Amino acid sequence: MEINDKEYWDKRFKEDWEANDGPSQTMFFYNLALTKLPQKISNEIEKQSLSILDWGCAQGEGANILFEKFGKHGNKIVGLDISEEATKKAQKNYPYIDFRHTPLQRDQDIFGVVFTSNTLEHFKEPLAVLKELCRHADRYLIGLVPFQEWPRIQEHFCTFNYSSFPSRLGEFFLIHFSVIKEKSKYWNGLQAFFVYAKKSTRGKLSRRLLEKRDLLVDVMWRTPVVKYAYKCLQIIRYEGFAVFLRKLSKKVKKGVAKLLQMAQRLLLSQTMNLSLPTTSNRYDVIFFAIIDWDFRFQRPQHLSTRFAKRGHRVFYISVSLQKQASYVSKQVCGNVYEIKLPYKDESTIYNTNIQDGSEVLNTAISTLFADFGIKDAISFIEFPRWYPLAKYLHQEYGTKIVFDCLDEFAGFAGIDGDILAAQEILLRDCDFCIATSTRLCEILKQKREEVAIVRNATEFEHFHNLPPNKLLEHINKPIIGYYGAIAEWFDTDIVEYIATHKPDWNVVLIGHALGSDIGRLKKYPNVYLLGEKPYSDIPKYLYWFDVCIIPFKLIDLILSANPVKFYEIASSGKPVVSVRIPELLPYENLAYLCSGKEEFLKNIEAALEEKNEYVVNKRIEFARANNWDSRFDEIIAGIASSYPLVSIIVVTFNNLDYTQRCIDSIYEKTAYPDFELIIVDNGSTDGTDNYLKALQEKHKNVMVILNGRNLGFASANNMGIKRSNGEYMIFLNNDTVVTRGWVSGLLFHLQQPNAGMVGPVTNSIGNEAAIETDYMNLSGMEMFAENYTAKHRKVVFEIPVLAMYCVAISRQTVEKVGLLDEQFSIGMFEDDDYALRVKKAGLKVICAEDVFIHHFGGVSFKKLRPTERQRVFDENKKKYESKWAITWQPHRYRNEKV
């Protein structure tokens, strides 16, 4: 069952629609839309008794609101929804309205008005849906959708922006558009209300003006000044002149440079709908490729698609560099986006020192990070010349660098000689290094001690079940087959020797012929050069091969190679005849390995006569065990091990519901791949102990410490510190909810010079870390956190005290400063004390504006009677002042005068 299909919505309407207040939410949106519907259009609908289709009607509450508004004027109301479960309930509740669940019939189901509320965001291509709905509207198409929704709800596949609403849809023109901000428990973000009208209902003058505007935009859209001017006009038209002046004044203060950057961003926003990840506990992958996505499906694509299947977004950086204004993105499959970066001229990465155009590239990649809300990320490099850009990302965003070394790059024709120097720098600075073969690993270890071998593999099912077909039925058997690159390492002599000595055999070669001397094979009638074929079709050709060959020259490049085709062919069980590539020597029992063309021919003869099913099955089992999924697991584990372990220490005392919410947010929002969660319970009596035991069974990285009584905040945290293994520790209250990028964000600032402790900003705390917030619920909090932290990226300030509702600190600092002072019973003042100790050790106490944590605040202390709470405060204050021989200074909010 997929999100948003018929089965999915039938289940929703049957099980939890009403429990989640769906009917009330529907009525809220429909009433909101009707209040924004221009009176002139409303009057026309009434006077002409236009029929209305409520498209995506759910259980009919909205259709009933439309009926109450227009039904008395004779307007026919029809409700349609994909879910039969929903329309059955709707028909039962509102029998005077016609409800349907069957698809609309083109050229038959025509309505005066097509109305839709909060449905289009459930489609991956909403513009195509809008165009289709226009076919069923005779006069107006009216809709309401979430606007600038970042992050998105899981069911929403699209984020709408100004660029999402073209001025024209075929015969329909956009005649009304407004952005609505109305706070409600049903929706805390913005909504966009739009009305399209068929051109026959519009005046000729306004239509001509719109058409001229469209022409102007089409001709001049690439000019930054025009784009910015157009944006200004949009703001004036849709939000008012006063809002425009207010926004303009802010921009002017930030300077012309900032305005030009905004213009560049506007260009990008017109070409694509951008979104945040639907899976927030996976880091993004900036995949610095060695080949373009559509060149040939090999190791880069196999790894990229597996990252994507595991919930990671992959930004696959093209090897082609374009002379253009900004980056261009294309979604090639699932969570994989191919990115073409701008450069000072047209080039490729193979022979380009990108340091020469670093400013252009750095700006473009930073824009990519901003547009896609990238926080946790790794740079996955497959060609050394990408290193300067990966280094920039490491310095600017803290991204880890992974080097996946596929080949001996110096062996490629057309690659500049300084590639080895570039590789040496990359080897020195990368966080995790992978080699695809033993020989390659030995070469890399001359410059770097730790190198993991992760060989190539096969997509077993793709090559195991070969589909019968007629592609090569015109070629007589036996067929000796090869597929893959036909380049300078391809040994044409071997193929020519086969063709001349065995004229009754047919040789089929599949692949681009780049840099090889394969042209001389064209004269042989038994040699077929078929060119490149799609990866999806290779099994169809493999089906016809009687013997597969790997005829390579044993140059340095091949001596270090691990041929992926060997694993793929083995998946089918078919025999392989190959030169003696070192990586294949351990598999002499599975392949026919040769020295010289005479032995190559002899081994093909033996392979054609092969009748040993045992060997066939051994090849298949070998391939099954060497699949891309298992290889990917090795890589994921290696990447995680390159991160320093972080110990998250949470102290609990009752308040089970808050604890559950906190722990859920940790696992839902923490993309940092290597952390342990240590939970110390101070004698809870509300079932917390049972919940924590179950949690420990569920997650391997959870450690639970159960105290029989309340030992206090400091003592419990010290227990967690003593049991922790992390290089870094984060003390986190159980009445918090974390947000995307929180661990990596805190650690990024903690690794700056002289940083002792780092904490986030929050909605509720009694000092300068508290900021103004406007969200009403946790759903709104997510959107607020994304916007606020993006605007304040890398902004920090020194703060007198970090309240320990969320504080990151290194083990090195703890060893230097010591444990929390346990004399502060239960809680209060241990954070003042520790901040002062960190400062006296010559370290900084830092508040990070680009990390936001929601804090309910004082949940445990609020259960104490006011007199008891005051007593604890007074006693601990006295201890603090006595210990340091100073008068405690009350905390202040930001901007509060002394």
Describe this structure in words.
There is one protein chain. The chain is 39% helix and 19% strand. With 898 residues, it is α/β, with parallel strands linked by helices. The protein has 5 domains: 6-211, Vaccinia Virus protein VP39 (Rossmann fold); 221-269; 284-453, Rossmann fold; 460-626, Glycogen Phosphorylase B (Rossmann fold, 3-Layer(aba) Sandwich); 643-884, Alpha-Beta Complex (Spore Coat Polysaccharide Biosynthesis Protein SpsA, Chain A), CATH 3.90.550.10. Strands 25, 26, 27, 28, 29, 30, 31, 32 and 33 form a 9-stranded mixed sheet that branches. Helix 24 (656-669) links the parallel strand 25 and strand 26 (675-682).
Estimate what percentage of residues fall within beta strands. Answer: 15-25%
* Helical/strand content category: alpha/beta
Query: Which CATH architecture of the largest domain?
Result: Alpha-Beta Complex
Tally the structural domains: 5
Counting H and I runs of at least 4 residues, what is the number of helices? 31
Distance between the termini: 60 Å
Basic shape: globular
Outline the low-pLDDT stretches.
Answer: 201-223, 257-274
What proportion of the residues is helical, as a percent range?
A: 25-40%
CATH class of the largest domain: Alpha Beta
CATH fold field value of the largest domain: Spore Coat Polysaccharide Biosynthesis Protein SpsA, Chain A
Largest sheet: 9 strands, mixed
What's the alpha carbon Rg, rounded to whole Å? Answer: 33 Å
The number of distinct β-strands equals: 33
Mean pLDDT across residues: 88
Q: CATH superfamily membership of the largest domain, which one? A: Spore Coat Polysaccharide Biosynthesis Protein SpsA, Chain A
